[in-house]
Amino acid sequence: GTGFVWHESGLILTNFHVVYKANKINITLQSGKSYDATVIGSAPEKDLALLKIDAPSKALIPIPLGDSSALSVGRKVLAIGNPFALDTSLSVGVVSALGREIKSISNRTIKGVIQTDAAINPGNSGGPLLNSRGQLVGVNTAIYSPSGASAGIGFAIPVNTVKMIIPQLIKHGKLYRP
């Protein structure tokens, strides 16, 4: 799986399904240094997990946040991840559709999802989906693949959804629903 730095205090964001049932979580930064991580909070119904590592803040550079509501079909996006255990991979594509619905690991519907043709493969889960300015616009979460191969249909949780959930994960360790 993949994740990325949310905050220089050591907060790392990834998908819930990446850490689900994990006995131990170890995060390796681009520098090659590895750190044990603890789960700060999770939202299985949105397939998000917030982790914490004890690393020097100078080694942790958060991705600038974008605005997923500014996306439109045809906009260029970049997916970063570790597909098939090949680290630091980048794929480029476009926003194929907005407002999609997918099922979470808890079988709840995640609404408002970004669909992209940027290659999202096993191992890309939890990685960032960026706009052409290098700003985070989504968290790669799933592919639609009846055959098991990349079919050009990947999905990402919009960053605007993530922005609303992170404070709850920090404060309560979970998402409170009305």
Please describe the topology of this protein.
Layout: E1 4-7, E2 11-14, H1 16-19, E3 25-28, E4 34-43, E5 48-53, E6 76-81, E7 89-103, E8 109-116, E9 128-131, E10 136-143, E11 154-158, H2 159-172
Antiparallel strand pairs: 1-2, 2-5, 3-4, 4-5, 6-7, 6-9, 7-8, 8-11, 9-10, 10-11
3D structure, described in words:
Helix content is 10%, strand content 42%. The protein is globular. The chain has 2 helices and 11 strands, in the order ββαβββββββββα. The longest helix is centred in the C-terminal third of the chain and has 14 residues, at 159-172. The model has no long low-confidence stretch (mean pLDDT 92). 39% of the residues are buried. The protein has a 6-stranded antiparallel beta barrel. The protein has helices at 16-19, 159-172; strands at residues 4-7, 11-14, 25-28, 34-43, 48-53, 76-81, 89-103, 109-116, 128-131, 136-143, 154-158. The chain has 178 residues and is mainly beta.
Strand segment tally: 11
C-alpha Rg (nearest Å): 15 Å
Order of helices and strands: EEHEEEEEEEEEH
End-to-end distance: 31 Å
Principal-axes shape call: globular
Q: Could you tell me the strand content as a percent range? A: 35-45%
Q: How do the strands of the widest beta sheet line up side by side?
A: 6-7-8-11-10-9
Structural class: mainly beta
Unreliable stretches (pLDDT < 50, length at least 5) are: none
Distinct helical segment count = 2
Q: Main β-sheet: number of strands, strand sense, barrel status?
A: 6 strands, antiparallel, barrel
Mean pLDDT, all residues: 92
Give the helix proportion (percent range).
Answer: 10-25%
